[in-house]
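stage 2 :: seqdesign
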């Protein structure tokens, strides 16, 4: 058996560091903010929290095509991870 403490947060950190350069090489731009959704309350987002992602809220569970304002999908917690300290200024230009 192989044990690797903090594996999930290590992998997330590695991916976050690598993603900017990869997107720049492939698509010609570098993202400034990452976003992910975690099904709530089935999962608590422990790995994202350990990797310093910030939970900014919870979805309504409606989905983008639901027209009757009813909850038809599981709610999801929204996590953000800034890749640059000036991400707000860049996104609000």
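stage 2 :: out
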């Amino acid at each position: 058996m192989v044990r690797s403490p903090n594996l999930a947060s290590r992998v997330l950190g590695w991916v976050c560091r690598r993603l900017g350069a990869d997107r720049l090489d492939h698509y010609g731009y570098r993202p400034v903010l990452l976003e992910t959704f975690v099904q709530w309350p089935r999962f608590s987002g422990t790995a994202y929290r350990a990797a310093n992602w910030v939970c900014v809220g919870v979805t309504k569970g409606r989905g983008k095509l639901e027209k009757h304002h009813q909850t038809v999908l599981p709610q999801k917690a929204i996590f953000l991870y800034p890749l640059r300290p000036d991400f707000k200024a860049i996104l609000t230009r």
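stage 3 :: structure notes
- The helical segments are 7-27, 46-50, 87-91.
- The chain has a mean pLDDT of 89.
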